[in-house]
Amino acid sequence: MKKLSVLFAAVIMVVSVSMAKAQKLATVDLMGVLNAMPEKKKADTDIKAFLDAKQAEIKKKADAGQAKLKQYSEEAPKKTADENKAREAELQKIQEEIAQMQDKAQKDLQAKQDVAFGPIEKKLNDAIEKVAKASGYEFIMDANSAALVYKSGADATAAVKKELGIN
């Protein structure tokens, strides 16, 4: 029994050592590479402009609603109950329209981000894959990941940037 335990321990040690030697690890600063890509900078600018335009539309509608609310509040004592009720319904409709505009803006923003960043992510992933294959890396991990507990492998950031033609 004792011989079996010693043999098992020896086999585990040999397998562990051979697995550790067989794996070649590297890290890459994904955010650093992404932020250096001109395509991402342009996409960020386009998305910010899109978002600013949507926010301006929503603010315009909200300001118009606020102005009506103020006007209706001031005129309410002079109006009939039916008129005030109709005005309340109109203000409620404006609030619903603003909420719909916000929902639509959020969905449109997500769609625009998907369209803009999809090709950028593919280009980055292709470059990482090419560098990994050329350098013999079995794993490349994000250097900024919170899940990374220990980092000892080579850093592939410079090679990925070179592959993408950026400094």
Keywords:
167 residues; mainly alpha; Skp_dom_sf; Chaperone_Skp; unfolded protein binding; Periplasmic chaperone for outer membrane proteins Skp; rod-shaped; Protein Binding, DinI Protein, Chain A; three-stranded parallel sheet
Question: What does this protein structure show overall?
Answer:
This protein is mainly α. The protein has one domain: Protein Binding, DinI Protein, Chain A, CATH 3.30.910. The chain is 77% helix and 6% strand. It has five helices and three strands, in the order αβαααββα. Strands 2-1-3 form a three-stranded parallel beta sheet, with helices on one face. The longest helix has 55 residues, at 81-135. The N and C termini lie far apart (61 Å). Residues 1-20 form the signal peptide. Belongs to the Skp family. Residues 71-86 have a biased composition (Basic and acidic residues). Keywords: Signal.
